[in-house]
Design a protein that fits this description.
The chain has 188 residues and is mostly helical. The chain contains 6 helices and no strands.
């Protein structure tokens, strides 16, 4: 399977994944899921779900060959380890989850900024990544400072970010399909 085909398949899976997680977050926000007892474990699950795509992409797209992707797997590994530790707490407090999630968001934002500026060149196509990185850092700080009060803002922003990721992947996959059709036509 060629690299372009693999990227299209991974992109399609990513679209479905981001849309599913964003929809779950949106439904939980609309239904005021935070009023229920297992809300802490739901939040830990959302944190865990945010790390899975990075691990998947790192392995499938051979991110280990690109040194600027090293931070992604470190961040994802830290997130997974934190989630496992939080799952092991019998009665986890929402404040602890907020602090952990805030720290993880700040680290992810810093990693995204590093990735954007890694090569010393800044390209226009990296503007969405830079904006999302700044939003991650700001929301992480808000989540740490405001704790439970900042959680609703964080969940709304996380939902919006996931929808943005899905839309971006739809555009990338669509452009990849268009390029593939043009290449096929040129080969004929």
């Amino acid at each position: 399977m060629n690299s372009r085909r693999k990227r299209l398949i991974v992109g399609s899976i990513g679209i479905a994944y981001y849309l599913a997680v964003a929809t779950i977050l949106l439904i939980s926000f609309i239904l005021h899921f935070e009023d229920y007892e297992p809300f802490g474990y739901f939040l830990i699950s959302v944190m865990l779900l945010s790390a899975i795509p990075d691990v998947f992409l790192y392995i499938v797209l051979k991110g280990y060959k690109n040194p600027r992707k090293l931070g992604h797997i470190v961040w994802a590994g830290l997130t997974i380890t934190t989630c496992i530790a939080l799952y092991s707490i019998k009665e986890v407090d929402i404040s602890i989850i907020c602090i952990a999630w805030g720290i993880i968001d700040i680290l992810r934002g810093l990693d995204e900024l590093y990735t954007v500026f890694f090569d010393g060149k800044f390209e226009k196509r990296e503007i969405p990544d830079m904006i999302i990185a700044f939003i991650d850092i700001i929301l992480g700080v808000i989540l740490i400072i405001k704790l439970d009060d900042g959680l609703n803002v964080h969940l709304v922003a996380a939902t919006a970010t996931l929808f943005v990721f899905a839309i971006r992947l739809i555009v990338e996959v669509s452009l990849g399909l268009i390029r593939e059709k043009k290449d096929a036509k040129n080969r004929e």
